[in-house]
Amino acid sequence: MQNTVTPTDVLECVISGDFHDPFSVLGMHRESGRLFVRTLLPGAVSVSVVDAHSGKELVRMERFADTALFDAEIPGRKEPFPYRLKIDWGTHRQELEDAYRFPCVLGDIDVWLLSEGTHHRPYERLGAHPAVMEGIAGVSFAVWAPNARRVSVVGDFNGWDGRRHMMRYRYECGVWEMFIPHVMPGDLYKYEIKDIAGEIRLKADPYAFRAQLRPDTASVVHGLPPAVPSDERRKAANAPDAPVSIYEVHLGSWRLPGDGRRWLTYRELAEQLIPYVKSLAFTHIELMPVNEYPYDDSWGYQSTGIYAPTARFGTPDDFRYFVEAAHDSGIGVILDWVPAHFPADEHGLVRFDGTALYEHADPKEGVHQDWGSIIYNYGRTEVSNYLVGNAFYWIERYGVDGLRVDAVASMLYRDYSRAPGQWVPNKYGGRENLEAIAFLRKLNETVIAERPEAVTMAEESTSFPGVTHPVRDGGLGFHYKWNLGWMHDTLSYLREDPLFRKYHHDKMRFGMMYAYSENFILPLSHDEVVHCKGSLIGKMPGDEWQRFANLRAYFGFMWGYPGKKLLFMGGEFAQYREWDSNGSLDWYLLQYPLHAGMQRLVRDLNTVYRDFSPLHRLDYDPQGFEWIIHDDTDSSVFCFMRRDGEKQSVIVISNFTPVPRYGYRIGVAEPGWYREIINTDAAIYGGSGVHNHELPAQPVPSNGMPWSLEVTAPPLATCMLVRKDS
């Protein structure tokens, strides 16, 4: 071999794939006034250097000691120039650009922002990006693995051989990077990492925009989706004074094609699910996690690819089509987002470079007791930046309207589901996870500052203060919080036999004690219809008619109550069976009048909720609500008024017994005639048909008001009244 400058032991390290700085050896270099090209090509029979401009073959390279390392001095040249490698593989010949002749991928500003964890869009630089460098098409790769001894890109394009494309290490930010010519969108790849202990790990790209369908685990080269412009209409539709009624969906089990052997694609779902949601007058659709995940029965909550829409239903472009179709129909899209934990699958983030990189090293901090999954190290700037960037990515690059953040309670407390002695206190000796709190505040501040049309929603089950209060006031900064207390109390009440509900009256009114402490969403989610909890209709007592009447009355109460609404799929037509994620909803039930009636009721409740501003405009202002009757325990009747702040009001009356209440007097604030806008006992919904016709207000004071109505409270029903001129 002609080279006499580079030490033999260095060359041997390069050949064995155990060298941290391959760009200092491979490629074109000036050494002792001479110009050399060196390449490592396992499997090559011979290699020559070709002038890229003239196409002239300049020199045949020499093999180093019967290895895959080839070397040549370029005769008559002293300055670097563009070149290609002409390779004889024995079975065929090929002329390729040398990946080691290209400069750095990351710029100085990117390196700086990545190192301090303030890069709002880390996905623009990390991951795999189709690019053109020095006129050559290829892909730029970059991955954070600061403790690795060596990182290579492997894929079909190099025979999955980690010696072919060993990456450049950027000490300033712990990132390995490389531009590889000739790689194209659609190519499979992973990172081969020689970790700190010398073990080889094959890892999917944490920033992959596309991934293979399980059981395969490779990442797929895919371009970064173009940014979606901000939309003031979407901002208004997500606002606290807007009607927000959410249909929660698991895409894999909403509806299956006729043979039941595959899932609907994103495009098929756009054609079927979106019109269905619109027909029921829901304003938003919430998708259970659609990031890539390996195990179907995790429903997406154990993600190994948070930047990739799952391949179960199609490509990233197909998913973007789905979101655009929803927006074209006036439907907002909310994604269930999971920064609370990740699975321990070897191809994922766990011990990514041989160390606890994304997670905590101590299992008392780094392992969830409930789920056996891994907890992110929120205090590490690169990890926080990875997650905040991901939230921003879905909003900016796919145009989603909001993120429902899963399991926030598990993030806020270090002792979550842990026995004494099994958790590590914070630096002040407390149980609060200060790093997670800082991360959530950073997340919400970033979304508000960069994409103010989008919203974040916390699934938070404790009394942690200020979840939806601004960060500047000491809050977490979420826009909305799921009201799990209201859900548990009211479902517990509805389970009671109507005869005994008078002893549990407080469960329905207690929620008003804290209703304005946060911006609440009222959730009847998937969590209430799985794991042997039964269906919503299955929770109701009595015979079939009473079960349906109870659920209709409950829906009416919920849609009248302050707070945005959320209903899991199947609840709208009272599916009997508990939700099964491996099958379709029981759509055949809609041939039966009680189920079809429930579906029609949900549609009409959404329509009334949208069309009558008192039912949504002041959801988070105490001026928007007033009890009329809350203490009639013997009758199990509740009556309240909703206001919009502009002289409009809606009266909601719920009777949770099967006994109709005739001549039931309720106070009203204004004279005039009153009419029903909805009655869950209507015959079209499957009820008994007990109605209120137009009612005149009488000058008889009642419930602290100067006027009153004598109403009929239908059995097991909720009705809503407005003044006739409303």
Distance between the termini: 93 Å
- Biggest sheet strand order reads 17-18-21-22-23-24-25-26
Query: What is the mean pLDDT?
Result: 94
Q: Roughly how many Å is the radius of gyration?
A: 31 Å
Structural class: alpha+beta
Question: Major sheet, described briefly?
Answer: 8 strands, parallel, barrel
- Taken from the alpha-carbon principal axes, the silhouette is elongated
Low-confidence blocks of residues: none
Helix content: 10-25%
**Total number of helical segments?**
14
The tally of strands reads 34
Share of residues in strands: 15-25%
Describe what this molecule looks like in 3D.
This protein is α+β, with helices and mostly antiparallel strands. The chain contains 14 helices and 34 strands. The strands form eight sheets. An eight-stranded parallel β-barrel has the order 17-18-21-22-23-24-25-26, surrounded by four helices. Strands 27-28-29-34-31-32 form a six-stranded antiparallel β-sheet. Strands 1-2-6-5 form a four-stranded antiparallel β-sheet, covered by helices on one side. A hairpin with a 2-residue loop joins β1 (27-31) and β2. α4 runs parallel beside α5 (316-328) and α7 (381-398) runs parallel beside α9 (434-450). The mean pLDDT is 94.
